[in-house]
Amino acid sequence: MRKILIILLLLTSSSTLWAQRPQREYDKDKLEAARVAFVTNRINLTPTQAEKFWPLYNQHLEERSGYMREMMSINRQAGESISDSQAEKLIEQRFQIQEKMMQSEKAFTKKITEVISPVQALQLSNVNRDFTRQLYRMQRDDRRSRHSN
């Protein structure tokens, strides 16, 4: 019953989130609440696990976002007219960032497996992908329903 309620909360808040906002705008609090509910439900976090898991997870997401911003910066530079030597430097920088991301992921996994089970940790990456897909699907369906009216 609890799972059904969490899923309904997720679907209701996510559909409301997309339906009420103009394109490219969203309510960050609702999105975060939906993500927390989705992940908590899908990997079956207990309240004790959740209390310890979410601070670690949020810190990891912030760190990962920083790395992704660096990668986007490199990609923007690569889109410009650059020399071969500049391109080689950018390639090396990209590999260095990817290595940092891998080390960060390993450290994060080690930390969270002290809080959640290895099975839950393994499920986490699929759950994140599923949540993103669910949001895209809901946004697409909302656009289709608005255009068909």
TrEMBL record:
GO terms for cellular component: periplasmic space. This is Spy/CpxP family protein refolding chaperone. It comes from Litoribacter ruber. The keyword Signal applies. Residues 1-19 form the signal peptide. It comes from the Bacteria. The lineage of its organism: Bacteria, Pseudomonadati, Bacteroidota, Cytophagia, Cytophagales. InterPro entries: LTXXQ. Keywords: Signal. Pfam families: LTXXQ.
